[in-house]
Design a protein that fits this description.
Shape: globular
Order of helices and strands: EEHEEHHEEHEEHHEHEHHHH
CATH architecture of the largest domain: Alpha-Beta Complex
Strand content: 15-25%
Structural class: alpha/beta
Largest sheet: 6 strands, mixed
Strand order of the largest sheet: 1-2-3-5-7-10
């Protein structure tokens, strides 16, 4: 018998895709699962029919971290880091809004997976953290970089140094997650949010995402250059022509975009 796929992709209305990690109950991030995340993210990013993405796990965890058994059997730290980097960089590069739906735990690599998304919806009972220090190691898949960019260096250092788990209310207060809802509403809320973006000018959203992310990695001047490049590029899209024409003819907020 063939084993169940490690990643499931569900099609929802308006071009929204739900990507579900499928190593229940805790979705440990094995090399094989990371490779599947990279493959699926690459395919979604290249598909013009995809307009927004939600990343989810089980009711117990988005992912509770790396597969510790694999870590214990491997002396190839660089190879392990490369697998995480490929998966999460590919996910972060999807030129559409990507939302993490977090129920249960998002720890270690699981939190780093959520950090590679653009927005995060968490259950009120969710727990998030970077507990690698408790194993005598440090985060290796974005926990010292994406986390610091999101919540600031001091808070990131405290979470990494302590290895503690953060409750959903604190995570929301420090900007680690964007919404907190009851557990049974996490996925529906994330899908509804994704759909609100998917019905808009998603190519322009992708260009804005690229400019924002590029600006975080360099100087203000570099970021402004990236913004100008994206601004010029967006005028080549059908949605820009539609939006400007609609504004002139009907006023703001009336355009119906086609995502191209």
């Amino acid at each position: 018998m063939m084993s169940d796929p490690l990643v499931l992709v569900e099609e929802h209305a308006d071009g929204v895709r739900l990507v579900r990690l499928n190593r229940p109950p805790l979705n440990p991030l094995s090399a094989a699962l990371l490779a599947e995340i990279a493959r699926v993210a690459g395919e979604l990013g290249a598909d013009p029919a995809v307009r927004a993405v939600v990343v989810a796990g089980s009711d117990r965890a988005l992912a509770a971290g790396a597969d510790i058994e694999e870590l214990g059997r491997s002396d190839d730290a660089r190879g392990i880091a490369a697998g995480f980097r490929a998966a999460f960089d590919t996910l972060a590069a999807v030129p559409r809004p990507v939302i993490a739906a977090i129920r249960g735990f998002a720890l270690g690599g699981g939190l780093e997976l959520a950090l590679a998304c653009d927005l995060r919806v968490a259950a009120d009972a969710a727990r998030l953290g970077q507990p690698e220090i408790l194993l005598g190691i440090i985060p290796g898949a974005g926990g010292t970089q994406r986390l610091a960019r999101l919540i600031g260096p001091a808070r990131a250092k405290e979470l990494v140094w302590s290895g503690r788990q953060v409750r959903a209310d604190e995570a929301h207060a420090i900007g680690l997650v964007d919404r907190v809802v009851p557990a049974e509403e996490v996925e529906s809320n994330a899908l509804e949010w994704a759909t609100s973006f998917a019905t808009g000018a998603v190519v322009a959203m992708g260009l804005a995402k690229r400019a924002i992310d590029a600006g975080l990695d360099g100087s203000l001047a570099d970021g402004l250059d990236a913004e100008v490049a994206a601004f010029v590029e967006v005028f080549e899209t059908e949605d820009a022509a539609t939006g400007i024409r609609s504004f002139l003819e009907h006023g703001p907020g009336k355009a119906r975009f086609r995502g191209r």
